[in-house]
Design a protein that fits this description.
Length: 142
Amino acid sequence: MSMGDELPSAADNMKKIALAEAEKASAYMRKQAAAEAEKRDLLERFEKPSGVSDEERLKRAGAIIRRAVDNGLTEVFIGRFPNALFTDRGRAINQMEPGWETTMTGLPKELFHSGSGISNRAATGYAARSSTGPAGCPGTSA
């Protein structure tokens, strides 16, 4: 057996490396596709009404408020939504323009309107804030 038989050729090495890189790229693309599908599904869920009754929502809000008070908190985070759920892509809320709440759709709108009623009943405040999303893009919280 000669020394050349024990060492793979440069062409074989390059082929093996290319196959490994192709598999990595394929795995990455599968992960990206799965993540995009998950985002689409979540956005579709947020675009529709939650199906939670006002009574159940009030019960949940009461539990959250009691827990916050018991822990000495004056604020509670309720939810974060993509700016795609706003008719103006979050521009009005980001600028805190009067009437920004009319730009909400789907679940954010539902939560805002029920939250306003809950905050009036519980003598608490209700606020919405803008946040920055990935890569510095505007995001929206309500």
